[in-house]
Amino acid sequence: MSKAAATVATARDGGALARLARWLDQPKVLAWLMLGPAVLYVVAFVGFPFVLAIALSLSDATIGDPSLDNFVGLSNYATVIQTDAFQLALRNSLIVTAGVICLILVLATLASELLVYSFRGKRLFQTLFILPWAMPVSLAAIVWLWFLDSTFSPVDWILVELGVLGPGSPLGPYSHMYYLGREWLGLASTIVADVWRMLPLATIIVLAGRLSIPEERFEQARIDGAGVFRILFRITIPALKPMLIVAILFTSLLVIGEMSMIEILTRGGPGHSTQVLPYWAYLKGIAGGSLAQGAAIALFLFPFLLVVSVLALRAAYRAQEA
Amino acid sequence: MFLSLARKTGFYGGIGFLTLFAILPVLWAFLTIFKTSGDLYSIGISPFFFDEPPTLSNLVFLFTRTNFPTFLWNSAIVGVCVVAITLLLAVPAAFALARLTGRWGEHSGMAIFLVYLIPPSLLFIPMYQIVVWLGVANSIWSLVIVLPTITIPFCTWLLLGFFRSVPRTLDEAALLDGCGQFTAFRKVVLPQVYPGIGACAVFAFSLSLGNYIYAATFINASAARNISAGVPTELIRGDVFYWPELMAATLVVAIPLAIAYGLFFNYLVGGFKNAT
């Protein structure tokens, strides 16, 4: 008889304490004991504030008077929607997220396709590759702020050296692009910086999907004479679909909720032309003191995100079962 | 595997492109740290070479003349506490979902995901009020209490993947030998997922360091700031940017974290593989 079994045998003869221990060890009871703390924590610190956010958005609370006693219905939403800043913020949040998703899809598929193979220096590559994700976002944003500096940007220097920027070149007479000082270039820079930051995580997720495809399917296709691109589009990408969806969801939820990138890169400017929803909610709600309007801005996309995510997850599960 | 020359070129071309994309801004940041201001702010010379001998004075300035050591210390305390709370709650929860809840637990991945739909950008305003009620506004403990909301769902989800990858026959054998459920978890299943727990710890630590919105909202006092909110607010004074110090602050944090991530890279992939 093993030692553990012997302990159980003595426990069986034991008193009330042993009986309690045995009762607690039943799968159903133990499941709740082990799940309980995490569930309680999430309900207390995600569920409750979420309800509070909804209540705030329907009230006229400010930082000076944060009580919820005045119910104003949807009027905060109505006020908020009419402002130019909000409309620009909504547009930019959607553009940035869509842009990031498109680039991430291509680059993460490419990167995972390369990381399947073993090669010399793979460890070093993995470490360098994951570096952008290892930086706190606000610090990553500062690195990009300096990288795209209006005067000292090394990107400008490279472009000038290549002859595409500077006097008498295709990109105009100036030697600087002023990436962060213009509306569309500012948004494009934000997209690139966000892709740079999110690519490692997206790649890890897609690579996990790529490694679960059985190798025989590729070998069979190769025997049948299929080329690299045919295999990629006919076998790899369809089989990757569930993990691509998961990667997109993770990436877009992290990008759409991040304010420090825009706050540090462009401060939402010029004007409000590169404003995004979370930063505008922060400016209105905390800096401007109108908790109610800030909450309304922050909540605005929630129903939309909920529907899209549930549909996407269902598609992912169905694709996985198929 | 045999690769023809063209495919080999394509392969290393791809690796080279991705490496360059990942490290070009970092390389620029790295060179900036060691440049004298005369070298840094002269126009027309190559930004990638040193025209004046490299200097360590910027690093020395960061650690002796700014609040950066305080930020670093605060971030470390917050990070360690958040990792501890997260693992304490997420490891048992993930095991319960993987083994004890049957069919119901199989689709829990989706439910955990729904928590992610309520991101910090949506919660920071009411959370600010809760932090005020709890009397921890303006202290690092506000972050210790609130940041596990981000790390617990994520780590539970990832750990679910690690627990699922442990063959069921292992704990079934332990149960047949007369082990209790809990003993089977602690003595048999748990040791199998230690690398996964390590990967989760790295992930939770870096997420707790990286969160900006809570740190910026809850804390105004300089002594209680962490790096992600302290560096942008205090090392940038209006229009004056201490670029070499800023870059040093970034890389001092990012390089050790990247090495830790690099060590756990394959385990992370393994966790995601079984989580969905």
What does this structure look like?
The complex is a heterodimer of chains A (322) and B (276). By secondary structure, chain A is mainly α. Helices cover 74% and strands 0% of the residues of chain A. Chain A has 2 domains: 1-57, no CATH class; 75-321, MetI-like fold, CATH 1.10.3720. Chain A contains 15 helices and no strands. The longest helix of chain A has 32 residues, at 84-115. The model of chain A has no long low-confidence stretch (mean pLDDT 82). Chain B has 276 residues and is mainly alpha-helical. Chain B folds into 2 domains: 5-55, no CATH class; 66-275, MetI-like (MetI-like fold), CATH 1.10.3720. Chain B is globular. At the A-B interface, helix 1, helix 2, helix 3, helix 5 and helix 6 of A face helix 1, helix 4, helix 6, helix 7 and helix 9 of B.
List keywords for this structure.
heterodimer; A: about 325 residues; mainly alpha; MetI-like fold; 2 domains; 15 helices; about 0% strand; flat; B: about 280 residues; two-stranded antiparallel ribbon; about 75% helix
Which architecture of the largest domain in chain A does the CATH hierarchy give at level 2? Answer: Orthogonal Bundle
Number of domains of chain B: 2
Q: How many structural domains does the protein architecture of chain A include?
A: 2
> CATH fold name of the largest domain in chain A, please?
MetI-like fold
Give the topology string of chain B: H per helix, E per strand: HHHHHHHHHHHHHHEEH
- Between the first and last Cα atoms of chain A, what is the distance in angstroms? 46 Å
**Major sheet description of chain A:** none
CATH structural class of the largest domain in chain A? Mainly Alpha
Biggest sheet strand line-up of chain B: 1-2
- Reported by name, the CATH topology of the largest domain in chain B is MetI-like fold
Q: Structural class, from secondary structure content of chain B?
A: mainly alpha
Q: Largest interface, by Cβ-Cβ below 8 angstroms: which chains and how many residues each?
A: A-B, 111 and 105 residues
Order of helices and strands of chain A: HHHHHHHHHHHHHHH
The portion of residues assigned to helices of chain A is over 70%
Question: How large is the radius of gyration of chain A?
Answer: 26 Å
- Report the CATH architecture of the largest domain in chain B: Orthogonal Bundle
Number of helices of chain B: 15
Mean pLDDT of chain A: 82
Per DSSP E runs of 2 or more residues, the count of β-strands of chain B stands at 2
Oligomer: heterodimer
